[in-house]
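Q: How would the C-alpha cells look for this protein?
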Amino acid sequence: MDPGQCFFPREVVKDIRTPVFILNPAYDAWQVQHVLAPEASDPQHSWQDCRLDITKCSPEQLQILQGFREELHDAMREIKQKKDWGIFIDSCFIHCQTLNSVTWHSPSSPRVNNKTMAEAVGDWFFDRREVKELDCKYPCNPTCHNLVFSKPFKG
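A: Here is the predicted structure in C-alpha cell form.
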C-alpha cells in the first residue's frame, strides 16, 4: 500500500480495536466547501452557490454530492460488520451537529430511522441495541437542519 494512504480514516479504522461510534453528515458542509469543491479549484465559481446552500446545487452537482455520499457509505462497509461499533450518518448539509442541542437532542433534531443522534449514541453506549443508522439520499430527510452560508465555512 502507498504509505500516504495510512492517514485516511478508511485505512486507520482497520487497526482500531476499541469500539468507536462514527457520527457524521453524509453532506458535511465543511468537507463540501474545502475538500470536494474548494474555492481554489473553482476559478469560474460554478460551485459557489452550491457550496453555500445545497438547495442551489444543479442536478449535475447533486449527482457529484451523491457520489461523495456513496464513498462515505462504502467506507462504512467494513465498520458495519463490527458489531460493537456504532454509526449515525444523516443526509444533512451541516457540520458539527453534536455541538448544538437543537441538532443533538431536541424535538426538532434530525432523525434517522426515528432516532436522534443522542438516542443513537445512548443506545450504542449502553448496549441497548446495535446502532448502524445510515440515512437515505438528500433531499429525503425532512428533519435535517441544512445550513445556508453567506460565505464559506471557515471553522
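Residues 59-75 form the longest helix (17 residues).

The beta strands are 21-28, 86-94, 132-134.

Upvote if useful.
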